[in-house]
Write a structure and sequence with these properties.
The chain has 651 residues and is α/β, with parallel strands linked by helices. It has 20 helices and 24 strands. The strands form five sheets. It has an eight-stranded mixed sheet with strand order 3-2-1-4-5-12-10-11, sandwiched between helices. The protein has a seven-stranded mixed sheet with strand order 14-20-19-18-17-15-16. The longest helix has 20 residues, at 533-552.
């Protein structure tokens, strides 16, 4: 790179550095006053005829040429751009012209939720194609959220069909005191034009700025608009109302509308049904302790209930059958009911607009898959496969990564969602420091983090990362009433997130997902606080012996956190032979792809003996593993020991 060349660090996108003083010195000769007037006249005509109001958002406003022109015609305009230099020029020009425009410095492709109000119309002229297709789709969906129902979008783009017919790899523009050398390389397969502009002004050192633009055919832009939920009214050619676009059209303007919002007020009009007769429900019975014969089933932990049964029974005894008829249409996401209990449980203030109840962690993960659209979705090798699988079925690309590649893949793919499990299948209950680092890195790249804490209940509420949502507006923490609570049949889970993200989640999550009865039992359980002390003590007592016997049999066991009722080992033919020899039945979890079921391979190495977070490791992120539940009841532990005695191994 020559002296004065501008590139930026690895975490910056090209457009964050491209649209500076050097670019605008060249562009000023193309964006003449006459051209600006013609384009602004077109925009004003369209908005006057079709927009429901006068509030306009100008996306990628640059130096403000359209924003100021529209403001001068009586529109209330907000201009948004990523270029700080351009915005300063825009503000100075607006002040000099005596027009009022609100200017916002914002990266439209990286910001999760645009900090803007509501608009009647959005215009985007020559500012489309800077990111990936997925990022452009996210931009369009975010634009639709900023529009009032029935609001109008005018999206201009350069027609690659025309550009391709005149495309040259190098060109020069020269005027008094300015020389610009354009170098281009159009990649047909991906539709992107990469290149640079070398700018020489007078005797100053030359400056090189680099770009990487996605050039679209009109049909491709139309597809993106449809997928973003817009209704397309027409496509104009070269800023002329009603002119039909053709092969020779240089600029195409799509006029699209945000559909009228569906009527969601009915649920607010419903009244809560009256409570019925109160009767006591029957308590659930425990699962079978030991499978018949000599085979010991270690795929599950049916004996966990022995250590939480009193708390579960207490919760059920205090709930009448009348709540089964409760239909909480006035609190469809159970936020008002759950927030006070969760606040007490986790030891922090959780307002109702941060809490959403759903149909277990599974139902919430399914909603997060819809929230992840258009993607891509990034997930760690070894993570629970459901969300990535569902997202892929909905049209998102699901990309597996390893811990060592996480930052690079965040940069490379700009995912809409990153999925994490805590603990990992290998039993790593990594702490806040690690999560904070990942959440901040994801936030800088416009990525939402979905943290599945369904298995973290064993550690108790004090060990949860729910408090992290107060610091990270891109974090969703999922909890459920299964696992240690032994109440998966309640089908109740909770998502905790910042208010804006909670609102997004509720857009895709069906209301009334948590039944009145299940929700009441769940909240009564949570109100009892940490009920797992006895279970943790039993796990800590038994787990070392289980680990010793399995290792003695030849399995390379990873013990994981002491509070978790399972261990893991690499799955291979020799290990299968060991399990067959001792009559042990375990869960085998496949590796990186999404074809497997259950929780996959480990994504982080366990913490050290002191409980401190350790560096991310790729070593655990490959191959399939055995997940082996720790027998907890005396009957199952006796059967487990007997299996090794029969196999010729003694403790």
């Amino acid at each position: 790179m020559t002296p004065g060349a501008r590139g930026g660090d690895a975490h910056r996108s090209w457009y964050q550095d491209f649209f500076g003083e050097e670019f605008w010195a060249v562009a000023a000769h193309e964006y003449t006053a006459e051209r600006t007037t013609a384009e602004a006249d077109y925009l004003a005509d369209v908005l006057d005829a079709s927009a429901p109001g006068r509030r306009v958002l100008d996306l990628g406003c640059g130096t403000g040429r359209h924003a100021m022109a529209l403001a001068g015609r009586g529109f209330r305009v907000t201009g948004v751009d990523v270029g700080a230099w351009a915005l300063r020029q825009a503000a100075q020009s607006a002040a000099a012209a005596g027009v009022e425009v609100e200017w916002l410095h914002l990266d439209l492709l990286r910001e999760q939720s645009w900090p803007v109000g509501e608009f009647d119309a959005i215009v985007c002229v020559q500012s489309f194609g800077w990111g990936s297709d997925a990022q452009q789709l996210r931009l369009l969906r975010e634009a639709r959220r900023a529009l009032v129902p029935g609001g109008l979008l005018v999206l201009d783009h350069s027609n690659v069909l025309t550009i391709a017919s005149h495309y040259v790899p190098e060109a020069t523009f020269e005027t008094e005191g300015l020389l610009a050398v354009f170098r281009r390389d159009y990649r047909v397969v991906c539709g992107r034009s990469t290149g640079s502009i070398e700018v020489r002004r007078g005797d100053a050192e030359p400056v090189i700025v680099h770009d990487d633009v996605r050039l679209y055919q009109p049909a491709e832009v139309r597809d993106l608009l449809v997928r973003a939920g817009f209704e397309i009214e027409r496509a104009d050619a070269d800023f002329t109302v009603g002119r039909q676009a053709a092969l020779t059209t240089r600029y195409v303007q799509f006029v699209a509308r945000n559909p009228q919002a569906a009527d969601t007020t009915a649920i607010k009009r419903w009244e809560e049904p009256p409570a019925g007769r109160r009767t006591e429900p029957a308590a659930p019975g425990p699962a079978d302790a030991v499978v018949p014969g000599d085979l010991v089933d270690l795929r599950w932990s049916p004996d966990e209930i022995d250590f939480v049964q009193p708390s579960v029974d207490r919760a059920f005894r205090t709930v009448s059958s009348g709540v089964a008829r409760a239909y909480h249409v006035t609190d469809p996401y159970a936020a008002a009911q759950a927030a006070p209990v969760l606040s007490e449980h986790f030891g922090l203030e959780l307002p109702p607009d941060t809490v959403t109840a759903g149909t277990g962690a599974t139902g919430l993960l399914h909603a997060c898959a819809a929230l992840a659209q258009p993607g891509p979705v990034l997930y760690l090798s070894g993570g629970h496969p459901d969300l990535p699988r569902w997202a892929a079925r909905l049209g998102s690309e699901a990309i597996v990564t390893r811990p060592g590649n996480l930052t690079a893949d965040l940069d490379r793919h700009a995912p809409s969602v990153l999925v994490l499990d805590r603990p990992t299948i290998a039993g790593d209950l990594y702490g806040r420091e690690t999560l904070d680092e990942i959440a901040r890195a994801a936030r800088a790249r416009g990525t939402t983090v979905v943290l599945d804490e369904a298995y973290a209940v064993y550690a108790g509420p004090d060990a949860s990362c729910v408090p992290a949502v107060a610091e990270h507006d891109n974090l969703i923490v999922l909890r459920s009433m299964s696992k240690g609570y032994c109440c998966g049949g309640l089908r109740v889970g909770f998502a905790v997130a910042a208010p804006v993200l909670t609102g997004r989640l509720r857009e895709v999550l069906p209301p009334l997902g948590a039944s009145g009865f299940g929700l009441t039992v769940a909240l009564r359980l949570l109100a009892q606080g940490d009920i797992f002390a006895g279970l943790r003590a039993r796990i800590a007592e038994v787990k070392p012996e289980v680990t010793t016997l399995l290792r003695g049999a030849g399995l390379a066991v990873t013990e994981g956190d002491t509070c978790l009722p399972w261990v893991t080992a690499p799955a291979h033919d020799a290990g299968r032979a060991v399990l067959e020899r001792f009559g042990l039945r375990v869960k085998e979890v496949q590796g990186q792809d999404m074809q497997g079921s259950g929780r996959q391979v480990a994504s982080r190495r366990p913490r050290d003996a002191g409980g401190a977070d350790r560096e991310l490791s790729d070593a655990e992120g490959s191959g399939s593993i055995f997940k082996i539940s720790v027998p907890l009841s005396d009957a199952r532990l006796t059967a487990f020991r007997a299996a090794f005695t029969r196999g010729g191994l003694h403790a």
